[in-house]
Amino acid sequence: MGMARRDLAFVVEAAHRREETLNGIAVHTLESGECDGWPFVAAVGDPALRERVVALCEVRGMTAVTLCDPSVQRHDSVRIGDGGIIAPGAVLTVDITLGDHVHVNIGASISHDAVLGSFSIVSPGARIAGHVTLGRRVFVGVGATIINGTPGAPLVVGDDAVIAAGACVVGPVAKGIRVMGVPAKAG
Ligand SMILES: CC(C)(COP(=O)(O)OP(=O)(O)OC[C@H]1O[C@@H](n2cnc3c(N)ncnc32)[C@H](O)[C@@H]1OP(=O)(O)O)[C@@H](O)C(=O)NCCC(=O)NCCS
């Protein structure tokens, strides 16, 4: 994503370290102190775990940075919070606000006037239409679609909701609810 490989490292808790390198990239442990003060992004695909990882890194004096692939298309009005990861081929149109540590994965699209809460994850190929508001720690599965809200009434997905892969969300989703299918229903 626009960085030389030598500038990258994985940092994991010691209990999760299985190897010294992964795909040619060094794996360090958080507890070693070697990475204290480094810039970081949380590269985990579960929103709650993402929040936990961020807290662990911040305790070590690490500073969140944003990674946005050069292939990403976005208007200047798109605001990306600290620790954002915007992967290749993503498209973010206009007047969009991403909270901190949001991950927009490959080929996903986010339309005008969307707001995505901190730690939320938009999986590959998902489609978020205009005037949609996601709470914190929302997971949007691969290929899912969320239809548009309106200027006075955004379509709201509550904190910690899970949108299953391939679902089509056509109305509000309450906090902590998992929805699936077309049209999406709790399940
Ligand atoms: C929704 C999801 C979280 C459910 O996972 P789970 O709790 O392990 O669910 P299970 O696989 O046990 O399936 C439970 C039921 O839901 C159904 N189901 C699972 N995923 C579904 C989906 N995406 N759409 C419709 N139905 C689904 C299963 O067929 C099963 O139905 P049954 O009880 O009638 O047999 C998961 O299937 C999913 O969509 N994950 C998103 C994956 C993804 O996007 N990853 C991105 C990686 S970058």
TrEMBL record:
InterPro entries per the UniProt record, alphabetical: AcTrfase_PglD-like, Trans_hexapeptide_repeat, Trimer_LpxA-like_sf
Site (Increases basicity of active site His): 113
Active site: 112 (proton acceptor)
Taxonomy, superkingdom: Bacteria
Binding site residues for substrate: 45
Assigned protein family: Belongs to the transferase hexapeptide repeat family.
Official protein name in the record: Acetyltransferase
Organism name: Luteibacter rhizovicinus DSM 16549
